[in-house]
Design brief:
Chain A is an all-alpha fold and 459 residues long. Chain A has helices at residues 6-22, 26-44, 48-68, 73-105, 120-136, 145-153, 155-158, 166-174, 180-212, 221-252, 270-276, 279-290, 300-317, 322-348, 352-369, 373-385, 394-402, 404-414, 417-421, 425-449. Chain B has 368 residues and is α/β, with parallel strands linked by helices. Classes of the chains: A mainly alpha (459), B alpha/beta (368). At the A-B interface, helix 1, helix 9, helix 17, helix 18 and helix 20 of A face helix 1, helix 2, helix 3, helix 4 and helix 10 of B.
Chain lengths: 459, 368
Amino acid sequence: MLFSSLEFIFLFLPAVCIPYFLVRNTKVRNIILILASLFFYTFGEPKAVVLMVMSIVLNYGLAVLMEKHKSAKKIFLTASILVNIGLLFWYKYTAFFVSGINTVFGLSFDVPVIHLPIGISFFTFQAMSYVIDVYRGDTPVQKRLSNLLLYISFFPQLIAGPIIKYHDIDAQIEQRDVSFENYALGTKRFLTGLFKKVLIANSAGALWESISGGDMSALSMAGAWLGAIAYSIQIYFDFSGYSDMAIGLGKIFGFDFLENFNYPYISGSIREFWRRWHISLSTWFKEYLYIPLGGSRRGNIRTYFNLFVVFLCTGIWHGASWNFVIWGMWHGLFSIIERLGFEKILKKCRVINHIYTLAVVVIGFVIFAMTDFTRLGEYMGVMLLNSNHIIVNDSFIFDLISNFVLIAAAVIFSMPVYKILEKNAFVKKAEGVVYPILFVITVAYLVSSAYNPFLYFRF
Amino acid sequence: MNKFISVTVTILILALGIGLIFMPKSDFSENENRMLQEFPKLSFNDFASGEYMEDITLYISDHFPLRDGFVTLKTLFAEKVMGNKLVNGIYVCDNGMYIEDYKKPENTQRLIDTFNKFCKNMEGRQVDLMLVPTAVEIYDDKLPPFASPLSQLKTMDKIYSSVECNNIDSLYDELILEKEKGKKLFYGLDHHWTTEGAYAGYTTWCRAKGIEPQPESAFDIKTVTEDFKGTIYSKLNDITLKGEEIKVYEQDNDLTVLYDGEERDSLYNYDYLDKKDKYSLFLNNIHSLVEITNNSTDSTRTLAIAKDSYANSMIPFLVAHYKKIYVFDTRSYKGAVSDFVKENNIDDVLILYNMNTIDTDTGVNVIY
């Protein structure tokens, strides 16, 4: 059940909110949220809900044991990390690993087909965050299983993040501000994310599909760049829209989640990009991987090695496929080059640094988007080497005209323009009209996407 | 203002949510020409596999309150505000025309093999093949600027040059000629050709066969409706669009028409004028075999046609030239058309399909 679905907005959400706001007791409210979250997960992943609950119970138990047997706490920490990484590896990477071994050693093991449960990359990371925080003594152990259940399974962040770190939220589980102000703020934030996802990301995605899925031999260089930009628009508005919806939903129920995106496309370097893009993941890796590895405190060579490991893990976290590995390395490469001194030069070139960053990011997303290396190679050939010898053609101009408003809107909302405008009194008033209208239009898009004329079956 | 927004949107959500639960539901969507999703029955297997939830999702979107109004709103917003020139596979032309895009053909080689096998099965009997290019090809000058749809002519050339049939490939030129005379050859809101378009198809066929075509004056031309909203209308579902007219070229012939054995005396079924799918009035919609006997002609010749719905509006022009015409719908006709032709010693055989839907037509693959 996506947040941007009719059943979520019109049935699930009212069914959760009405009892939630009718009761006053936080414990009862938490139980409502837990039941809602389990229902939410079951609706999308009926078989894996048992797996998720068992993993939560196990992590809960290991942390309690850690508290009781302080001298052996490293053992329990190791056990917990092995269980979480093991789960993630088994469900996400087994097939990739086996086929990799087959290729490298020329073997022919059967590649198993394992269904990837939704959200497993998120809930295993949150579970590890909890256990590591307790191990480090950053937070007290959670005595109530129900509280840990809520932290990990809470539906706003369960299936697509942000990855909430336990020490950022533990206090709010038992005490938080549920109010009309927060409800209003949360609703608006949820709507913002919904508009980003439905009105911009989905349309940009359709443009990318039509360009990348069409006849590659007729693709122009400009068309290939338009496609790559469309995909970059799609992934940012989709992902940040989803984070907005999650943050908004959290707010509705009184929770404060940290921001997950901060206008990444205005970055002047790749290192800055990673401080603005999917912040909850990069800070997770920073706190729980980069710093434990020694961070930048153990000399230059070790620092670059640590950076390399973090980018490799970031890449592979996104999916079990070589293109994600390459994408991670691509960003790692530029980060290291910048760290070696290139960043100082970039800072002096105020326009070129943005062009450079966007080019690296956009080319990176083409690698991210295409798992088929033959097609990726062809696409890159057209995009970077003009291998079809067509700079511009009619179909590029047509796509540009037909999607001009979309691209213009995407460019404007990728920059903090609206952040400044919304402080204006007139804009504030206009929002009161524009938000409800955009909501109705978004519903129209959602209804239409399932409107499916079945026209030719009789002819 | 945040509070105002949240209250307004909350009211909208509650109102539509209540509507979704309590408003009466219909089973069939005439506009989409399909049955709507029923509320699924709960079973353990469907629940565990997730199918139950998927069906609920479909049920909700199929029965959402004010569904047609929302789809209209989306179409208008995409066209007018976002400035999209291609909406649901339909080109939005500047002059108010709507033209359906030609999708990338995937099955051209299979079609060539099918036609070749069919012609071979005829053992020397000539098979005429007529492929109809559609509005996107004929009206390409009306498309939005820089629109560059795939070429139907290329696919047609590929088929014509690889099949051993008698190709009637002059139809494109004929349609262009008639267009320049100002004729409306295709419906604006449906994927079919108009009766004038079908007439151009008929004269092309006549010339290829060395027959003198009957002039338009030989027919009694009637406008039977001015409110036809076809498949393009359904795809856009823009309820602000006005319907268009259907003309019928009637002729006094004493006909016996057997629709799968059911006898009538007309090539038309005007009951369809009361329904949405008005084009179905031609040849009474779909039947696996239609046998047309012309009792008023002296001709003794016979014709078999394997075809899609484009033929339905062209066949009325052909009846004057034959004693008997057999029209096959190969999706439902059980048996080989070629056997039928040989057993009944049919004189002429025609294959007629339009380029817009031939690639995905489920009937054309089973001609043999």
